[in-house]
Amino acid sequence: MKVVSVVSAKGGVGKSTVSANLAAALQQQGHTVLAIDLDPQNGLRYHFTLEPSSMAGLVQAPQDADAWRALIRPTESGVALIPYGDCTEPERQAFEAELRTDASWLISRLRDLELGHGVVVVIDTPPGPSAYMTQALTAASLAVAVVLPDAGSYATLPQLNTLISTYCEGRDNFSGYGFVVNQVDQGQQLSKDITQVLRTTFQDRMAGLVHLDQSLSEALAHGKNIFQYRPHSVSARDLVACAQWVAQRLDL
Ligand SMILES: Nc1ncnc2c1ncn2[C@@H]1O[C@H](COP(=O)(O)OP(=O)(O)O)[C@@H](O)[C@H]1O
Ligand SMILES: [Mg+2]
Question: What tens digit of pLDDT does each residue of 152-177 get?
């Protein structure tokens, strides 16, 4: 089992979009993929279906492997999904308190699942430091940070580097981290300039860039991933390239 944790310092940068479509791209490349929504917004499921029924999920914090396995949903895309789950406010708080007591909760539960060799788990997270990000980074074989080509994202890079080195570096099973620059707009000089600066900064940690592409928002509005909705779009091509970088880093 390999775990790809998708993180960001800021919200709205496209983490869920990248998580869902990276999962789909890896699945299309022949891997078995489980996507996990570790964000209380509980929105990853909308990239996989238009009308999710009320769903149990992680927040129910099942302790035994059979109960965990029961949370895994097949989706039309072929990617399996564990949603965050519908919950009340006290349930969310109790879950977060549990996550804070044991930073290895997620990786321990994932190991209990015995998913088998070669399965790739893609984890979506809420923005910024949180108990969720700690869990995801503690579990990560590879961390993928999503940034926008703007000054605001650039300013968050030191914080991201600190978080990743705190929870990931030094672990034997950690294969490193990379950056996806999302919403690159070739029509905007500033976007192009900052993308160039980020390329120079990241060097071989540049996992790829994803262009600003309306097709991605439309795919979400249809409850589909980009490969189902518009497989020949620019962003589909970009996400295939990101998935190849991930596969190479993980030695898949
Ligand atoms: N490359 C892109 N091009 C166009 N729209 C995008 C792109 N990436 C994300 N979006 C849109 O931006 C919004 C926020 O994306 P989302 O993945 O939910 O961000 P986050 O999970 O970081 O909060 C969504 O409406 C999504 O469709
Ligand atoms: Mg999100």
Answer: 999 999 999 999 999 999 999 999 99
pTM score over 0.90 = yes
Total domains in the fold of the chain: 1
> Do 125 and 119 meet the contact criterion of CB atoms below 8 Å apart?
no
Question: Ligand 1: which of 44, 217, 237, 238 to mutate, judged by most atoms within 8 Å of the beta carbon?
Answer: 217
For the CA of 212, the nearest atom of ligand 1 = 3
Rounded distance from Cα 196 to ligand 2 centre (Å): 25
pLDDT digits (tens, 9 = 90+) for 46-65: 999 887 777 789 998 778 88
Amino acid, single-letter form, for residue 161: N
Q: Read off the pLDDT of each residue in 200-204 and give the average, rounded to a whole number.
A: 94
Q: What is the pLDDT of residue 54?
A: 72
The CATH number of residue 138's host domain is 3.40.50.300
Of ligand 1's listed atoms, the one at least distance from the Cα of 183 is 1
Q: Find the domain containing 149 and state its range.
A: 2-250
